[in-house]
Amino acid sequence: MKSKINMKIGILRETRRWKDRRVAITPETAARILQNYPEVELFVQSSELRVHKDEEYKRLGLPVVEDVSHCDVLIGVKEVANEALLDGKTYIMFSHVAKEQAYNQDFLKLMAQKKITLIDYEYFVDKHRSRLVAFGFWAGVVGAYYAFVGIGRRFCKYQLPGPETCTDLQDLHHQLKALTIPSLKIVVTGGGRVASGALDIINHLRIPEVLPKDFLERSYDHPVYTRLDPVDYIKRKEGAPEDKHFYDHPAAFESAFLPYTKVADAFVACHFWNHESPHFFSAEDLKAPDFSISLISDISCDVPGPIPTTLRTTEIGSPFYDVDPATGAEVAPFSSSSHVTVVAVDNLPAALPIDASRTFARDLYYEVFPSLFGTDEDEIIERATILKDGKLTPKFSYLKDFLEK
């Protein structure tokens, strides 16, 4: 494999998110890079928190350093702390700016001022717009596990340990053995990586799946779940053109989810959503006497978004809060059976840093690094570049007002 000459890569420690122990290039992947891209130099920023210790990299002969300012490309997982941003460098990260996230508006402005080139993992896609790298599966795993932590506390008077105390997926599975689920109905939305991770947990508990129609119409003496695709939870607005597809024209559709709020006990949200998509239900719907959902694990975690009980995101250290349906206000978690308990952690995979880092780094190696370290013939790097030397690239020019206002 041919690489660009003398490219220096800095493997960053996480500096902004809550105790995030993940890493984008694990020792396993670093060894592959050393073997197959001999003209790429790797430098590891020292970290006391990272799940892979400095010594693991040192054993590969890699320099472990504090200062990475001599590197050409700096690769982390989540956003870099403002004070750690280096002028004129190329960063690869989940930046959370391309959907005009207000909480990161100043972060985008700062990167532009520092003439940074920003490449975002979320936009590493192939020519069919399919994502090449993602933590989605592990978000689904941890988000579903949190749902059962909440179910344990609300319905079983049993407290499962938090996922951050578990070693890996096998340990999560082991912890779930202690939980006996009553005859609850669980509705899952979505069908991608996130949903597949959530279903790993649900299926491990041997909770049977039922069709959406049966979920709505039948009663059961054991727990069940149903999984909904968009065709199940949205419908075309009256008069909307028939040729409008939901993913391209979400504003042409409205919610058809309300019947599920009257029969489901728990909602595990794994769907894709953008700001033009319909909301699943309204704050007013919460007040209905037949609204039956009492626990929501919002893995999609859009704020503000389509689930009105997701008032804010939460952290791994304090994942739950309750919402009082009468007022729509946040109250203490598990404080009343009449409340809706919400978990809305926005960095779920950080709770399983070994599993999440391993699969993410492998995907990067096979799907992205050939373009990053070689020639970007398929424009994988180009499509994911939001800023080039501090200037918006043409694909992301729609962010101009967001950047400048």
What does this structure look like?
With 405 residues, the chain is α/β, with parallel strands linked by helices. It has two domains: 179 residues, Rossmann fold; 216 residues, Rossmann fold (3-Layer(aba) Sandwich). It has twelve helices and 17 strands. It has an eight-stranded mixed β-sheet. A hairpin with a 4-residue loop joins strand 13 and strand 14. Helix 1 runs parallel beside helix 10 and helix 4 packs across helix 6. The longest helix has 21 residues. The mean pLDDT is 94.
User: Under the CATH scheme, which architecture of the largest domain would be assigned?
Assistant: 3-Layer(aba) Sandwich
* CATH H-level superfamily of the largest domain: NAD(P)-binding Rossmann-like Domain
Structural class: alpha/beta
Per the CATH scheme, the topology name of the largest domain is Rossmann fold
